[in-house]
Amino acid sequence: MYILTAKKDNDKIFTLERQMTREHLVHLRSTSQFACPQCGNPLRLKIGKVVTPHFAHIVLTDCFTSFSERESPTHLIGKQQLAEFFTRIGYNVEVEAFVPKISQRPDLLIRKNKSLYAIEFQCSVIPIEDIEKRNSGYRRIKIPTVWILRSPNNFNTSGVTLIKLSKFEQSFIGMDSSSNPTLITYNPSISQFIYFSHLVHITGTSFISKICTLSIEDQTFAFARVKPLTEIEQKQYWRIYQHKRLKFLTNRIFTSKFGARDKFLNDCYLQRILPEKLPLYIGFPIPGSQVFYHHLTEWQLALICWLSNQQVDLANVNESLIEAFLIEHCRVLDLKLAIDVIQKYCQLLQSINYNFTELVSQQLVSESYLFEHFHRFIVAKR
């Protein structure tokens, strides 16, 4: 277990910093004793030529359980760079401070005036339950937490594009003050933040995103916000959405594993329409739709068919009805969030005056209207 902070000569907390010379560290190692601030056991100061200088327990202990992850060279360097960044902008920084009330050690604990934050720089994939457990601990003692993921490898692109985010990465998507779903990552190798902003879920792990970079020298805290999308970028979002939707629907018949038992294809048959001819309001991006395991078109068409069979007016669709639909027809990550997503979709259907007594093939809506809705409620709010 690599750590950067130790008790020096059983006295003050000592933190390794990048600007310390090798000669200085060699002298410290020969003249000082170091101990773990948490368990009190002796630490060895390791000064290699490849791995960042660090402390390690001479005898293995269970101290690592208070960290969010085991150390790696990338994590060590990133933690040091972030500590220097917060110090530079006026925060008092404690590296690997042990918080006894919750038995956790955030990578950084930063203070300024009455503000206190826990900063976690996450480089490895760990169970989402572990993330939630750590967040719960911080909430219990009322410390706001900021998670920063290590930037994915080989991400050299910028601008509007289609990206893939694992469920683990999706769990770190946050909202800025303008309700812009954003994932902030950091790459210690080039001292650069990468923003995946204005995230619009398409299907599974696929999102449309605007990617931009910011050097650590230009960063602020709270972290700098991304500018709103330009008109050209909004049209790029719309084109990518349409292309991915049509590609999915065109291939849907050929990729079916259920044949005559395929509910989506049966729903299309009952609506007397080919999948690729479905109107654009079916398969429409709705904020938070990554909570569904199904493609947008699948759960939205299933909902329309189910509500038609229930003979329910849109104005009377309530949480109980939505929950019944979800339990019967959908797999979701979170029932409460899925109910909220469906309520938003029902609002879209109401805005186009959808009539459940008619087939979807008889209820076409102009692309210009849907683009305007996409612009106002999906993209512009981001």
TrEMBL record:
Domain (Competence protein CoiA nuclease-like) ranges: 71-221
Species for this entry: Paenisporosarcina quisquiliarum
Protein name per Swiss-Prot or TrEMBL: Competence protein CoiA
Ranges where the Competence protein CoiA-like N-terminal domain occurs: 19-64
Origin: domain of life: Bacteria
